Amino acid sequence: MQSLQDIDWNTWQGKDPATLTFIIKDEQILLIRKKRGLGAGKINGPGGRLEPGETMLECAIREVQEELCITPIDPIFCGESLFQFTDGYSIHVHTYMAHDFEGTPAETDEAIPLWFPLDGIPYEEMWADDIVWLPEMLKGSQFKGRYLFDGDRMLDHHLDIF
Ligand SMILES: COc1nc(N)nc2c1ncn2[C@H]1C[C@H](O)[C@@H](COP(=O)(O)OP(=O)(O)OP(=O)(O)O)O1
């Protein structure tokens, strides 16, 4: 498996459905330093895997509550990312954005909250795909991306924006 063409995307289903949520307020974006799980050590948005019986939106809100002790207000769906790893693992990530929240961001055993200016997003400390789609999301586009990873290394990608 070396390129996206090696994958049958018509039948592809991610092993794990998951969410990412980005809070953007006052020209700043709220990110986390992830302390455990897939991508531990990287900077990302708060998020995690869907639990049985919940909707994607419920998952997005719960993960932000668990990781940062705040509740995003009215998150809106922005796009999806289909990640295939060469070891066979796959994850289908649904991404949300909110412009306000209740509470005060706090460090938890899962994450350290970090605010960055929108023109200073630390892509070099994030997953390699983020610089592909996050600027499009910030411009207001919806997106659907497909990515092939070998561990941390992005081998191939394709992004559609709407
Ligand atoms: C491969 O590229 C990725 N890029 C980005 N930006 N985000 C990714 C990528 N792969 C996974 N993610 C995100 C999606 C989820 O938000 C997390 C993974 O979920 P996690 O391991 O944190 O799941 P939890 O259910 O929270 O797990 P625990 O509570 O058991 O730690 O990474």
CATH class descriptor: Alpha Beta
Poorly predicted ranges: none
The CATH superfamily appears as Nucleoside Triphosphate Pyrophosphohydrolase
| Radius of gyration, CA atoms, in whole angstroms | 15 Å
Note the total helix count.
2
What is the name of the CATH architecture?
Alpha-Beta Complex
CATH topology: Nucleoside Triphosphate Pyrophosphohydrolase
Biggest sheet architecture: 9 strands, mixed
The percentage of residues in β strands lies in: 35-45%
> Which structural class should the secondary elements be placed in?
mainly beta
Question: What are the bound molecules?
Answer: ligand LXYW25GO
Approximate helicity band:
10-25%
Mean pLDDT over the full residue set: 98
Distance between the termini: 28 Å
Count of strand segments? 11
Number of domains: 1
The arrangement of helices and strands along the chain is EEEEHEEEEEHEE
Cofactor: Mg(2+)
Protein name: Oxidized purine nucleoside triphosphate hydrolase
Subunit structure: Monomer.
Pfam family, one: NUDIX
Description of the structure:
The protein is mainly beta. The chain has one domain (14-161): Nucleoside Triphosphate Pyrophosphohydrolase. Helices cover 14% and strands 44% of the residues. The protein contains two helices and eleven strands. The strands form two sheets. Strands 1, 2, 3, 4, 6, 7, 9, 10 and 11 form a nine-stranded mixed sheet that branches. A two-stranded antiparallel sheet has the order 5-8. β6 (76-85) and β7 (90-98) form a beta hairpin. The radius of gyration is 15 Å and the shape is globular. The mean pLDDT is 98. The structure holds ligand LXYW25GO. The site of the ligand COc1nc(N)nc2c1ncn2[C@H]1C[C@H](O)[C@@H](COP(=O)(O)OP(=O)(O)OP(=O)(O)O)O1 has 18 residues, from β1, β4 and β7. Residues 18-20, 36-39, 44, 47-49, 83, 91, 93, 127, 129-130, 149 line the site of the ligand COc1nc(N)nc2c1ncn2[C@H]1C[C@H](O)[C@@H](COP(=O)(O)OP(=O)(O)OP(=O)(O)O)O1.
